[in-house]
Design brief:
The structure is a homodimer. Helices cover 12% and strands 24% of the residues of chain A. Chain A is an alpha+beta fold.
Chain lengths: 170, 170
């Protein structure tokens, strides 16, 4: 981890008014009942959505201080420096906060062809769901057939993650 | 609402195995303890992140059937056909599901210059947070100064929303 600055480990600004939160200059993020804020992560160059995750206060502080994405892993219940295991570090090119400051958008650069998905694809979002007139003959939602948008995996997850448990939960 | 098809109001596929969920062709979305799934909404043309919201089962079904984004409003606790009040309907150009099927990505076209934010900006994410070497002289997280990326609002929220209550919660 490369600490580029040495901010004191304190809190973000207090949320005082709608005007302050929506039209002010203070970073006053809202964490949910579990202490988490959702994070949208896109590839800086292509704009593609790479992943959706969560940060707790500590993860957001570390991300801001280091310029590398840190998340909170809900399955492992730990602070998660993305890339610590896989090498797929996400370098922050831009970090944005939304109007009511309850969501973070990070635009990142990733080594290894931008791969970010634990299944081995570039994006976690490698499948499309047909909608409206493209639903075809499906008569039930359970009959909808997903369409693969990436034909090949970018890397072999077994080689990268070894025997680490799969984070997907049913 | 334009129903383009007439799918029976049933459930999505049952989640049976990690392989089915991650590498199969069935749509088997995971809704959280509150019955919600997070939704990332980007502009189809620019790739810009417009908003982050949530769908419940009904909202996801309506979105798939109609090709127009439906959300579940957590503040108002109702199904929310985006644009019903503001006219800023989001036409789905592509809908994707992620690896473990607990997040939806919609790529949309919006009328009125792509405006999507209730504050009046094009994107909800109109402010950047400086990170790492760009933190400057900030010594506390509460001193971080946000940077506005949109200089002007796209529309006047008072004209579009009238006296509807502001959805932002402190």
């Amino acid at each position: 981890m490369h600490c580029m600055s040495s901010l004191e480990p304190n809190s973000f600004a207090e949320r005082k008014s709608i005007e302050q939160v929506e039209e002010g200059y203070e970073l006053a993020p809202k964490f949910d009942a579990h202490g988490l804020i959702p994070v949208v992560c896109t590839d800086f160059a292509s704009g593609e959505l790479l992943m959706h995750g969560y940060m707790n206060e500590e993860a957001l502080r570390k991300t801001i201080e280091t310029g590398e994405a840190h998340y909170y892993s809900r399955s492992r219940k730990v602070l998660w420096h993305k890339g610590a295991t896989s090498g797929l570090v996400q370098k922050i090119k831009e970090l944005r906060i939304d109007d009511d400051q309850d969501c973070v958008w990070i635009r990142v650069e990733v080594s290894l062809s931008g791969a970010s998905c634990h299944v081995g694809y570039r994006s976690c979002f490698y499948r499309a769901v047909p909608v409206a007139e493209n639903l075809g003959t499906s008569k039930k939602f359970s009959e909808i057939k997903l369409k693969y948008l990436e034909q090949e995996k970018t890397f072999d997850p077994k080689l990268v993650y070894g025997d680490a448990p799969n984070p997907t939960q049913l």
